[in-house]
Amino acid sequence: MQKFKWQRIVLKVGSALIAPDQDGCRSRYLLTIAQFIVRCRAQGIEVILVSSGSVAAGSHLFPEQEQRSVTMKKAMAAAGQTEMMAMWDRFFDFPSAQILLTHGDLRDRERYTSIRETVFTLLEHGVLPIINENDTVTTDDLKVGDNDNLSAMVAAAADADALMIFSDVDGLYDKNPNLHEDAVLLPEIESIDESIYAMAGCATSAVGTGGMKTKIEAAEKATSHGITTYILNGFKEETFNRLLAGDNPGTIFTPYEKPMQEAVHWMTHTANEQGEVVVEGSINESSNRENGCIRSDEILAVHGEFGVGDTILVRSDDGTRLAKATANYSSCLLSFIADNEQSEFSEKMQDSIGPVVSEKDIALLEKS
Ligand SMILES: Nc1ncnc2c1ncn2[C@@H]1O[C@H](COP(=O)(O)OP(=O)(O)O)[C@@H](O)[C@H]1O
Ligand SMILES: N[C@@H](CCC(=O)OP(=O)(O)O)C(=O)O
């Protein structure tokens, strides 16, 4: 069996563990998780906590019949977040730090880099980063939407070697165990495909978001970056003892043998496209494109508004998503150049700026 040999781990704690009876934060399960964090740190393992539960923790402060509105949920998150942080902080005799993020922060390369640096600095100084989505400021466009995916983005940003998702079930089953008595726990998943997603149902608790689907998405994101991912039962004390003994008490997803590089991973799994360029055929059909380098004379259409440095999608004329890339041109300039590709201006422009996307800033999406 595998030893507990990690150097840097991200622990994701679901809402049901924070506020199990929706009457504010409870220490019932958090105490065991806090002890686990203390034990990991005592072994020299760096820990980052992604804690859900602000909405569930804050719900008792607001009338039940109004809790479904988005505005009310944001208010619950704002109030619950302080309650939750106070609870976590009380367990530790080392300092902790709150980081609240949106997808808007993570998909912006500069802000992403700044988040990475802050996390590394906190870890270097022995401070426990506690991360949640900044629910109060999110909009549909800005949010990650669930902390499973957020925790995988955090694990990749932090160069963690393991992601442990603590939930209210023992792991991934072949069907929802809360609805099917004969569901079977799957201890190890070596690769994630449609058949794995087909097993995942929604959350059945009143406070969970995303159920198993978002946990599998998180596992896919994390394992593609070389991060071993677990889904575990945070209600059971034995989970933590078995983990420290090097055992697998839930479901383990094995990491890719050839993980993506950090920048390519970020572009594939964290950044989302601001616009797209349409080219003919597949990415390797043109000699220019062998290395993923695309020039304007290959562009059939430009969609959306983007600026230099934004992430764009490269799509084939048959609709296939070929690659994500960093734009070297704004959409406006690119449309002009593509429409006037024979002009002297277009040629001069490309000679000085270079290709539309360059080989070092492209993440291929096509399966080879
Ligand atoms: N195949 C499955 N295996 C395990 N749990 C599943 C499965 N499909 C759906 N679920 C549901 O997912 C829930 C866990 O997700 P969720 O409620 O979002 O937890 P959390 O708040 O910890 O993120 C389980 O309680 C279960 O009802
Ligand atoms: N950001 C939200 C958590 C959203 C979420 O994904 O919840 P969960 O499914 O319990 O991990 C909160 O703090 O309430």
TrEMBL record:
Pathway note: Amino-acid biosynthesis; L-proline biosynthesis; L-glutamate 5-semialdehyde from L-glutamate: step 1/2
Residue positions binding substrate: S52, D135, N147
Annotated binding of ATP, by residue: K12, S167, D168, T209, G210, G211, M212, K213, T214, K215
Keywords: Amino-acid biosynthesis, ATP-binding, Cytoplasm, Kinase, Nucleotide-binding, Proline biosynthesis, Transferase
Superkingdom assignment: Bacteria
GO molecular function: ATP binding; glutamate 5-kinase activity; RNA binding
KW Amino-acid biosynthesis (keyword) present: yes
Boundaries of every Aspartate/glutamate/uridylate kinase domain copy: 7-233
InterPro entries given in the database record: AceGlu_kinase-like_sf (IPR036393), Asp/Glu/Uridylate_kinase (IPR001048), G5K_ProB (IPR041739), Glu/AcGlu_kinase (IPR001057), Glu_5kinase (IPR011529), Glu_5kinase/COase_Synthase (IPR005715), Glutamate_5-kinase_CS (IPR019797), PUA-like_sf (IPR015947)
PROSITE patterns: GLUTAMATE_5_KINASE (PS00902), PUA (PS50890)
Signal sequence region: none
EC assignment: 2.7.2.11
GO CC annotations on file: cytosol
Listed GO biological process terms: L-proline biosynthetic process
Record field: catalytic activity: L-glutamate + ATP = L-glutamyl 5-phosphate + ADP
Subcellular location: Cytoplasm
Family: Belongs to the glutamate 5-kinase family.
Record HAMAP family: ProB (MF_00456)
Function according to Swiss-Prot or TrEMBL: Catalyzes the transfer of a phosphate group to glutamate to form L-glutamate 5-phosphate.
Protein name (record): Glutamate 5-kinase
Organism of origin: Pseudoalteromonas lipolytica
Species classification: Bacteria, Pseudomonadati, Pseudomonadota, Gammaproteobacteria, Alteromonadales
